[in-house]
Amino acid sequence: MNQGVNLDLSLAQYDPWVIKKKLTATDTSNYGKLSLSQRGMGSITPQMRQSMREEMETIQGVEVKVHVIEEGNQAEDYTWRLVRESDGKYYMKGGWIVFARNNGYQEGDEIGLMWDQSYERFLLHKIVQFQK
């Protein structure tokens, strides 16, 4: 008797980017901060040291390193600050907007972020360049 079981296998493409974000006008404005999803950060923060999690809840936030994939393995990491506000929202500041402007990031671009636990840094990748 044929049970109609489908044994076809498919492989989904591996997607390491825990946070995928389409940049908004606020992310690329003079406010100079990149807002991050609470859901994505909820997956990342448990991988961080306790002291980092505690410091990110201060007004200054915690200093974090950010490695940009497009710049290659030998490139220097950027240093930004990660803040978790009292309402639970996360954002990066302290260098983000200068980086974004210098590298042509604009509203509509899509970026990906993940936490590299081995090096205690974020990895950033521009997934899609917005075309006007």
UniProtKB/TrEMBL annotation:
GO molecular function: DNA binding
Chief location: nucleus
GO CC field: nucleus
InterPro entries listed in its UniProt record: B3_DNA-bd (IPR003340), B3_domain (IPR051442), DNA-bd_pseudobarrel_sf (IPR015300)
Alphabetical keyword list: DNA-binding, Nucleus, Transcription, Transcription regulation
Top-level taxon: Eukaryota
Subcellular localization(s) per the UniProt record: Nucleus
Chain segments annotated as coiled-coil in the UniProt record: none
Protein name per the record: TF-B3 domain-containing protein
Native organism taxonomy: Eukaryota, Viridiplantae, Streptophyta, Embryophyta, Tracheophyta
